[in-house]
Amino acid sequence: MTNIFIIHGVGGTPEENWFPWLKTELEKHGHNVIIPQFPSPEGQTLENWLTVLKNYEEFITPESIFIGHSLGVPFVLNVLEKHTAKAAFLVAGFVGLAGNKFDDSMKTFSQKNFNWEKIKQNCKNFTIFHSDNDPYIKLEKAEELAGLLNVKVMLVPGAGHINQSAGYSKFDLLLEKLLI
Fold first, then answer.
1. What pLDDT is attached to residue 180?
2. Most exposed of 89, 102, 111, 126 (fewest Cβ within 10 Å)?
3. Where are the beta strands (DSSP E) in 25-86?
């Protein structure tokens, strides 16, 4: 059994997007899926989110898998500076400035100097999913992140922000990659 964390983005909840569907599918394969509720947008700071994650620290092992969506991506990278994990799946993510109206509320997460060597030492397997028409985070941001991690972007054409409003209540490609 693998502990798999799904991390939401700005204003997110464990019940949105493809998260409940993915949780159900992964549990059918015997995995333990944890989708914490982080304070957002009120109280949305890296420190506050790390405090919430402490409640689940016993489940963070070298065999854990992290899935981050949007703001969940830089949050996962912050976690990987301190913890070892088997893999990280980064969906519609970024580092630095996202280039949208949420930049100010996300700065503690993403506008910093990440320890990329430590992140890559703590996690050897990264998969980045991004769309060519994301209204919040441009494809160039995913390509920048991919360059820093020495991986390629897995392009999901026409998928918007890969969220519920873009038609993603299921994310079959992510499930397929998780089960490999």
1. 86
2. 111
3. 32-34, 65-69
